[in-house]
Prior knowledge:
heterodimer; A: mainly alpha; Arc Repressor Mutant, subunit A; 2 domains; two-stranded antiparallel ribbon; 2 strands; 58% helix; B: alpha/beta; Rossmann fold; 6-stranded mixed beta sheet; 3-stranded antiparallel beta sheet; 9 helices; disordered N terminus
Amino acid sequence: MAWTLDSDRPIYAQIVERLKLQIVSGNYPPGARLPSVRELAAQASVNPNTMQKAFTELERTGLIVTLRTSGRIVTQDGERIAVARRELAQEQVRLFWEQMTQLGYDREQILSLLLETGGNTHE
Amino acid sequence: MNETRTDSLVSIRGLTKRYGKITALDNVNLELPPGRIIGLLGPNGSGKTTLIKLMNGLLVPGRGTILIDGNIPGIATKSCVSYLPERFYASDSMRVEDLFSYFEDFYADFDKSKALGLLEKLQISLKSPLKSLSKGTREKAALVLVMSRRAKLYILDEPIAGVDPAARDVILRTIIQEYDESSTILLSTHLISDIETILDDVIFIRDGKTLLSSSVEDIRSAQGRSVDAYFREVFAC
């Protein structure tokens, strides 16, 4: 199945986000070997050059590492992955506040609602 | 893509083609670099197939020149261009294996083992008579043969028209996986949303004129929307 991509944003940025999420969530654990550019491009139904660009970006930020002989692996630096996880979490929180504010909630109300419903989202 | 490049695989200058009083192509200039997947996009009757036929030497230009790897379309270019026509030329009475022998006989760069592997993957039997195959399966078989040549340029005229979305996925995936990174694919279509994620560049063509040639990511960044949405606006009547 091709990856679902938004139509209004550059494709490589969306691939970067998606791969980040897969690394942070442990779908690709630290030190795991990543599929080749070509393989992953075919899986996602995207252009191999675009996939390459996404890989280059992830390499630049240190989340993936290119080995000379055995392709690309996820970084074994747990600290780096924790930072990426925190960045993704902060983005989610930012979106949450933005939407709650749009709904007319103030800070107090948001916090009390959070405490009220916290941990009960899977009921 | 329009500036002159010494590393162009295809160089088209001042190309004009008329059918009687109708101008099918009007002073087209294009440079196609190697190693790209390029979409040739335009509404029906815009000149896509005329351009493709000229590139394959099936039509003769009225004015202007086409150079592919330094040669004008002819015997020399047929050995480095792999062409999937809009309607495949195989006779209904042939079997898939007959088509195979054709490709082996005609093209020195035909990679038989690659083609066999792909056919197996797509579950197409060599013994099947073409007339027993659905339209989509026939298109897949034709694409397998065309993509199994080690060509410098693949020209695919509407490779995904008339097949269901699942077959479309398989065809696009086959294209991504099987082409050589140094070769270029030019594919024409009007089904842009299905293919835009696999393209490097797009060329918009209308009334025989090229309106735009740009990279997909540039269009998305500059316009904040998909090439498909942009196309719909540019070509809205």
